[in-house]
Amino acid sequence: MTELLNVRNLTARHGQLPAVREVSLTIGRGEVLALVGANGAGKSTLLRAIAGVHPIGGGTVHFDGSDITRLPADRRVAAGIALVPEGRRLFPEMTVEENLRVARSRPGGWELEMVLEAFPMLRQALRRRASTLSGGEQQSTAIARALLTNPRLLLIDEVSLGLSPVATEAVYKSLDRLIRAGTTLVLVEQDLGRAMSVADRIVCLRDGRVALTAHAGAVTREEVTEAYFGLGKPTAVRS
Amino acid sequence: MTWANAIIQGVLLGGLYALFACGLSLMFGVMRIINLAHGDLAVLGAFVVWLIATQGHVSPFIATVACLPLMILIGYGLQRTLLSRSLRSGELTPLLTTFGLAIVVQNALLQVFSADVRGLGGLSGLLAVDGWRLGDQLAVPYLGVTILAVAVAVLGGLQLVLQRTAFGREMRATAQDPEAAALVGIPASQVYARATAIAVATAAIAGAFLAIHSTFDPSSGPTQLIFAFEAVVIGGLGSLWGTLAGGVTLGVAQTIGAVIDPQYSILAGHLVFLIVLAGPRGWLVFSRRPRAWQPSGR
């Protein structure tokens, strides 16, 4: 599996507090990586730093062999990185269709009709304002909007946070299609079981550091939970 | 009949105020910048139009169209140089920057053109002085109707651009959430520069009509800024057609005030502004983040 993203010793702060401390990780093409960890572990900050919307204190980010550490967020989108941020961040005064059409597309396969096939619930909601959508519809719109930029790497923060079980199921059903299509994905997911079932690899963050890296099939839920809460054995790195 | 005439003149005067307010509203809606140099940029536009009209011996209306590319460039350059840097330094810095810019523009105009009062009414032919007479006390001036029509065309055109084009969607998206816009590939700096270019161009149109409608000098800017600001606040921050309604309300208040007593003209406008400011809408002005700018004013 060839390398698509290489993060080296990345550091990011929230004010004076270090949120991400010298994190290094690589992501291969077509890989699905689940980023797990307790609240405040640095997952969202790491994704935002990779997407270019959180300032980096140190370290480097290479994407497809190019150094993008200093690139602004909009140019990272043009390079092929898309982030579905925590809270979805839709444009509330715009309709679903406008939210989708506003994305600046790179050349590639995703077009409006295709995302509507991947997220069928959006077809009926195209004329509705984003502020009136349910949680599942909002998350679907946010993922669809990111897909319309034709990313080579899709980062999704808190996939199922605030969603009903039915909406979560619908969103993951759509994600399955993306995974089968070979999209490179990084998911932040609080539901550990769900994360382990869809990901090729699990990375657990604790206090801004990598506490565990393991292939999903080579680690038990208990081991991830231990790394998650810092219980038992010291930092483990398995692959 | 006197009251009817006052209302008609007020509505027409409101067109001029709406033109002044259009760019101010756009910049505030998209970038959250209150451009204190807006009135002076309008007067700069008036001087450019005056130069083209007098030196090129062309109608002020042709000169207005001719000056637009220059004003668009000035607006674009202003954002890419001064304003983009000040935007990165907190909320107060752009306010101070545009205040400084206003002083620079005023003094530069004073240096180049002197303090003489000028006007373009004389070069505008019958349009500037004639009108339809609908009785002894009722007249509808051609120029007032022209200004109102241009204001509606500018605001309507802007609304169409914002609602129907990809550029408009990008501008609305950036106005609502610049970071989320960047995450779908929209560079905020480019959107801001285009918005400023449009705002300065509309200010120049307003300045040209001020020059045709009455007179101007290098110190005319701040007064126009106050009227524009009042129109924006009365019409509601973040609303395009509200800006037109605000301009018309201000104009009508001033002309009705003038009927009561000529010295109440400006005061009546300020009173309406203060009443709006004291009401629920005023709280929006003082809140940290008013509703994002929407072309339809929903």
Beta strand count of chain A: 11
Please, how many domains of chain B?
A: 1
Radius of gyration of chain B: 19 Å
Q: How would you state the average pLDDT of chain B, rounded? A: 90
Task: Classify the helix fraction of chain B into a percent range.
Answer: over 70%
Order of helices and strands of chain A: EEEHEEHEHHHEHEHEEHE
- Which structural class best describes the helix and strand composition of chain B? mainly alpha
Chain pair with largest interface = A-B, 29 and 21 residues
Are there runs of chain B of 5+ residues with pLDDT below 50, and where?
A: none
GO molecular function (chain A): ATP binding; ATP hydrolysis activity; branched-chain amino acid transmembrane transporter activity
Domain ABC transporter (chain A): 5-232
Keywords (chain A): Amino-acid transport, ATP-binding, Nucleotide-binding, Transport
Family (chain A): Belongs to the ABC transporter superfamily.
Textual characterization of the structure:
The complex is a heterodimer of chains A (239) and B (298). Chain A has 8 helices and 11 strands. Chain A is of the alpha/beta class and 239 residues long. Chain A has a 7-stranded mixed β-sheet, sandwiched between helices. In chain A, a hairpin with a 2-residue loop joins strand 1 and strand 2 (17-28). Chain B is mainly alpha-helical and 298 residues long. Chain B has a single domain (2-293), classed as ABC transporter involved in vitamin B12 uptake, BtuC. Chain B contains 12 helices and 2 strands, in the order ααααββαααααααα. Chain B has helices at 2-31, 38-56, 60-87, 92-113, 142-164, 166-176, 178-182, 188-213, 221-235, 240-260, 265-278, 280-286, and strands spanning 131-133, 139-141. In chain B, helix 2 (38-56) packs across helix 9 and helix 3 packs antiparallel against helix 4. The longest helix of chain B has 30 residues, at 2-31. Chain B is globular and about 60 Å long. The two termini of chain B are 36 Å apart. At the A-B interface, helix 2 of A face helix 6 and helix 7 of B.
